[in-house]
Amino acid sequence: MASPKIEVLIPHDEIQARIAALGAQITADYQGRSIVLVGVLKGSFIFLADLVRHIDLPVRIEFIGTKSYEGTTTSGQVQLTKDLDKPIQEEDVLLVEDIIDTGLTLNYLQHVMSQRAPRSLKIASFLDKPSRRRIAVEGDYIGFTIEDKFVIGYGLDFDQRYRNLKDLCILVP
Ligand SMILES: O=P(O)(O)OC[C@H]1O[C@H](OP(=O)(O)OP(=O)(O)O)[C@H](O)[C@@H]1O
Ligand code: HPA
Ligand SMILES: [Mg+2]
Question: Rounded to two decimals, what is the model's pTM?
Answer without folding.
Answer: 0.97
